[in-house]
Amino acid sequence: MNDDILGMYDSFKSSLLELKNKEDLETLRVSMLGRKGAITEKLKNLSSIEDIEEKKVLGKEINDFKKFVEENIVLARTNLTELDFLSSVEKSYIDITLSGRRPSIAAINILTKVEEEIISIFRSLGFGVAEGFELEDDYHNFEALNMPYYHPARDNHDTFFVSSDRLIRTHTSGMQIRLMKDINPPIAAISPGKVGRRDAIDAKHSAVFHQIEGFLVDKDVSFNHLKGLLELFCKRIFGNSTKIRLRPDFFPFVEPGVDLSATCVVCKGEGCKTCGYEGWLEILGGGMIHPNVFEHVGYDTNKYTGFAFGMGVERIAMLKYGITDIRMFYENDIDFLKQW
Ligand code: DAH
Q: Does the pLDDT value for residue 91 go beyond 80?
């Protein structure tokens, strides 16, 4: 073989080994096969050779080399493409040693937590729990609670009527009627649940909110039992230093009826903005169950006495945690929910 061509083989092969990327390959290709490339030059020079035999031999050697170059350039291109792919895979490689990102996990609504806390306090004192129905009838929501159809107290209950007899319960008090009809004294139960009223929605009012009703009936139950129980409850939910105050109030289903206030959770009774500088916050209503209610459920009023009370869960949660807008409970704002 012609020495020149032999040298070209050697230098082409070592260039191949030094290729780093496709740009290098293109430069090599042009230096060999381009218009001014080494092979092109060699082919051009062929015409100046006079000896036909020599021309033939050299021509074949050049063309073999050309073929060799072309084939190897195709191969090198394939290899470089593969390398590119591998290095891109390497770049997107997942580093399993990196610490992960925590998925955000739902939180229990503070309202549910407060409801559960209230329930557990009464459970620990021996009260049973019965939820009742959100859709009630007139009888259990009003009539049997000493609010016949002409009773003015019905007006306070801006009711969502579903039909002339069915309604969204306006309070959870109706559950005491259902339970007392089913169970003879002694009985002590609470009824947590959702209630609805046609209230305009603002920071303090919601058309749907939550209440917990409680009652206890037995022989010789007195007002003092109610007072002692509610005092204990307030201390447990708001803290041991909490004091309570009872004032007369009217609810058709109790007599006497009271409204209970607790010392303000913010100022502890000193007087501040939260309690309107009174030192007291109204927490719940209660009283001794009215004899008319006992008559509806068939309890002997000469034998039994009992008390009942009802509270709003939102109100207690708002006071306990200083939440100023009732709508926050229902908006599902993750930052709000995560605070507690
Ligand atoms: N049901 C009353 C309300 O929705 C709350 C209540 C007050 C319940 C006095 C009672 C009670 O059992 O004795 O406002």
A: no
pLDDT (tens digit per residue) in 118-176:
999 999 999 999 999 999 999 999 999 999 999 988 888 899 999 999 999 999 999 99
What phi, psi does 315 have (nearest 5°)? -60, -45
Q: Which tokens in the block code for residue 129? A: 């729990």
Write out pLDDT tens, residues 245-267: 999 999 999 999 999 999 999 89
**Residue 327 domain-assigned (yes or no):** yes
% pLDDT > 70, the chain: 100
How far away, in angstroms, is 255 Cα from ligand 1 center?
12
Strands 244-249 and 187-196: unpaired
Residue with tokens 């507690």: 340
pTM higher than 0.70? yes
Query: Is 211 in the same domain as 285?
Result: yes
- Give the count of domains, the chain: 2
How many alpha carbons fall within 13 Å on the CB side of residue 276? Answer: 3
What tokens does 155 get? 């007006």
CA of 39 to the centre of ligand 1 (A): 104
Give the residue, out of 141, 178, 221, 251, with the most ligand 1 atoms within 8 A of its beta carbon, to mutate for a pocket test.
251
pLDDT for 170-197, tens place per residue?
999 999 999 999 999 999 999 999 999 9
Q: What are 208's strand-pairing partners?
A: 196
Q: Does the residue 99 lie in any domain?
A: no
Which residues constitute the domain of residue 315? 110-339
Q: Which residues are CB-neighbours of 221 under 8 A, at least 6 positions away?
A: 304, 305, 306, 307
Residues 258 and 306 in one domain: yes
- Backbone phi, psi, residue 215, to 5°: -155, 160
Residues 217 and 163 in one domain: yes
Question: What separation in Å is there between the alpha carbon of 173 and the centre of ligand 1?
Answer: 6
User: Mean pLDDT throughout 321-336?
Assistant: 91
